Amino acid sequence: MEFATGVLSPARTVDMRLEEVEAGDYKGQDVWLITLSMGGQGLAFLAPSASRDFKTFAVHKETGEVLSMKIRQLAGV
Fold this sequence. Notes:
Mean pLDDT: 86
Number of strands: 4
Radius of gyration: 13 Å
Number of helices: 1
Helix content: under 10%
Strand content: over 45%
Largest sheet: 4 strands, antiparallel
Shape: globular
Low-confidence stretches: none
Structural class: mainly beta
Oligomer: single chain
């Protein structure tokens, strides 16, 4: 969350939430794949996930270094 807040504008990190954490692999390195959602302004009560941005971060398990940040698209949204 600290990394996301530092690299994205404050307006893009409003109401940040932890959505998922899973073990994974990124370019041969053991990582945590952490999905955060941000936003939720406007018509969120009609379709909560449609008004939020989802990003997945690959975080090195041993060092905590963020190796990547990707846009996460939800199925059916």
